Amino acid sequence: MDIDFDIIDRAFAPIRDRALQALEPHTHRQKKLLFHYTSATVLQKLVERPVIWATDTGYLNDASEMLYALDVVALIAKELRGDARTKWSREFLSRIEAPSWPGPNVYEVYVSCFSEEPDVLSQWRAYANDGAGYSIGIEVEPSFSVAESTDAVRLVQVIYGLDRQKDLLRPWVSEVVHVLDDLAARQVADDDEESMGAAVFNAGVALKMVVSELAVVMKNPGFSEEHEWRLVFSTMGPGGHAPTKFRSSRFGLTPYVEITTHAVLPLRSVTRGPKLDSQEAHVALFRFLTGAGFKMLGDDPVKIQKSQIAYR
């Protein structure tokens, strides 16, 4: 007999529920000194109003970043073909190999990007006004909040190794395949297209929720020199309701949320870009930070440094 659609939905419910916690093992719980490459304009805004903008992942400078995890899923699907016992799971694996999968996001994820390194040429060129900007050293803390919820923001380290990325996603894909095969085994006929369609659709939704969570910790190995970390906010996670704001970018209107730091930005250093190597650039930065109330001399001052990279 045909399987009731409620049974199909309930079969994937545990995966959907656990998907919202998929990022938890990768969440860093301690303070971490990290560096944000940016322009003079953003430096001014951060100092004057210490909130960090986290951008919707669909509107990042390189939109392909969040699609990279789908490439990893496709590789896993090919590896698991031999484990698929029924037409249902074979159909599912075939679909998640396709470039058109999975379609629009089921919810929004916002990120703000940092690096472990204060002086990297690719970062200067891409994010700091082509070397005429700043690398801001901020002590990032778990207590940073969105809409007054400190549970809402997670700090994660990006994974670049393909083997580690596959190890992260493979158990989820395997579990979805197992559920599909279990559902198909309850059918009298393996070729019931309506039930199979419903099951494959639900399998896709469950896996898509997992990928939406874990995509933020994966990046192409070619970018490994960035040593990237991210502050992440998800509308499906704890405290996941926050007012969305909009700014102008090359996409036109770009959605973002504000991550609140402290009353005073936890600034530890500012590195001047390779094109800001003049004494005047140093003096202006020193005067700006002094005027903003930061301690520039004595014990534990904000350090001003200049890039050691030759780039004009």
Question: What this model shows, in words?
Answer:
The chain has helices spanning 5-19, 40-48, 68-79, 87-97, 121-127, 162-185, 193-214, 279-291; strands at 27-28, 32-38, 51-56, 109-115, 134-140, 153-157, 228-234, 245-249, 252-260, 267-272, 303-306. It is an alpha+beta fold. The protein has one domain (5-306). The strands form two sheets. A seven-stranded antiparallel beta sheet has the order 1-6-7-4-3-9-8, with no helix packed on it. Helix 8 links the parallel strand 10 (267-272) and strand 11. Helix 1 (5-19) runs parallel beside helix 7 (193-214), helix 3 packs antiparallel against helix 4 (87-97) and helix 4 runs antiparallel to helix 6. It starts with a helix and ends in a 6-residue tail after the last strand. The model has no long low-confidence stretch (mean pLDDT 90).
- Strand-pairing-aware structural class: alpha+beta
- Mean pLDDT score: 90
Q: Give the CA-based shape.
A: elongated
The level of helicity is 25-40%
Low-confidence stretches: none
User: Could you tell me the radius of gyration in angstroms?
Assistant: 23 Å
Which oligomeric form is depicted? Answer: single chain
Largest sheet: 7 strands, antiparallel
Written as H for each helix and E for each strand, in order along the chain, the element string is: HEEHEHHEHEEHHEEEEHE
